[in-house]
Structures are given as structure tokens and as C-alpha cells.
Write a structure and sequence with these properties.
Elements (H helix, E strand, L loop, with lengths): L6 H17 L4 H23 L3 H7 L5 H11 L1 H14 L8 E6 L16 E11 L2 E6 H19 L17
């Protein structure tokens, strides 16, 4: 499809989507592209090699059923599992999953003493994590997306049949 023929190549697309989002963390377009690609990696991995690789499924403890693979992902990475609801919610114009919203940062914000504080206004997407000690708690969407990047990088490096991944983006992951 469009010259992308296996999960490793789709992961390379995900790397670019992550770079794009990190360059403009207020972009709903880049966020949607990231979550849709991240979720579809599940289906690509299943169809490309996991569905027919009984030995690999047994090693991972996954039945021959894509829903079993979805459950396995939910067990291994709750954050990666969130991509399904976010992707389907964005596709069908029905908010689902973790609430992600825009947050405006400007000169009169708590960030006033860093470089963001000296710009006019910056919009970033944040994930509403609920309350922590009675106060609203948000994390930058980029942190959620990075966890998903590391999950797919590590999964494909360990389990894909085509060797290690060579795709690295402009943005370094926190464990690199």
C-alpha cells in the first residue's frame, strides 16, 4: 500500500509522524496521524507475520485471534492499547479513550521563566490524567506518544522476522 509493505516500514512512517508531532505539539493533524498509524501497526503485525507464526504466538502466549493480540498489547502496554480508542474515535468523530485537549502556554503562565514564557503563545496537546492529590493532572501528549514509540520499536526489534530496526527519527527517545 503506497510503497509501505510491512510493519517495519509502517514503523518508519510512525517515526516520521512522531517527529512531525514533536515539532508542532499543538497539531491535531499530526496527533491524529500518529495515533492512527500506531493503532494500525497492530493489524499490520498480525497480518504480516504473527497470524501464521504459531511458534511466535506460543512464545508470546497469544491465541490465533487478533483480539487475543489486542488483549496481549493491553496487558503489556496500557498506553499503546489506548491508540485503538483514539484512532477509532477520531475516525468516527466520536471522542473515545484518553481525553486529549489543547493547552495554551504563554507569557502569563507558570512557564514564564523558560523559553516558552518569552514567546507570545504556544498551544500544546495534553492528556487529561484525572486528578492527582485533588488537582487536575495533565501530561504532554508527546510523552504518551513516546511510550507508544518505544513499545513498537522494542516489539519489532524482538519479534519481527526481518532483523533489527534502523529507523531513527530526529527526536531522540528518552531511553536512547
Amino acid at each position: 500500500m503506497f510503497g509501505i509493505t510491512n510493519p517495519s516500514q509502517l514503523y518508519a512512517k510512525l517515526v516520521l509522524e512522531f517527529d512531525d508531532f514533536c515539532a508542532d505539539q499543538g497539531s491535531g493533524r499530526h496527533a491524529m496521524n500518529f495515533v492512527i498509524t500506531a493503532f494500525h501497526l497492530t493489524e499490520w503485525v498480525w497480518k504480516d507475520f504473527l497470524k501464521e507464526d504459531e511458534a511466535k504466538r506460543n512464545e508470546l502466549g497469544i491465541a490465533k485471534d487478533i483480539n487475543a493480540f489486542h488483549r496481549w498489547i493491553m496487558d503489556k502496554s496500557i498506553w499503546t492499547a489506548q491508540m485503538q480508542d483514539l484512532a477509532n474515535g477520531s475516525k468516527h468523530f466520536q471522542p473515545k479513550g484518553l481525553p486529549i485537549r489543547q493547552h495554551v502556554v504563554g507569557p502569563l503562565n507558570t512557564a514564564a521563566f523558560n523559553t516558552i514564557g518569552f514567546n507570545e503563545v504556544e498551544v500544546t496537546l495534553v492528556v487529561d490524567m484525572g486528578e492527582l492529590e485533588g488537582r487536575p493532572h495533565f501530561i504532554p501528549a508527546a510523552q504518551l506518544f513516546e511510550v507508544v514509540m518505544r513499545f513498537w520499536r522494542d516489539f519489532l526489534c524482538l519479534h519481527a522476522p526481518y532483523g533489527g530496526l534502523v529507523y531513527k527519527g530526529k527526536v531522540k527517545l528518552s531511553d536512547e
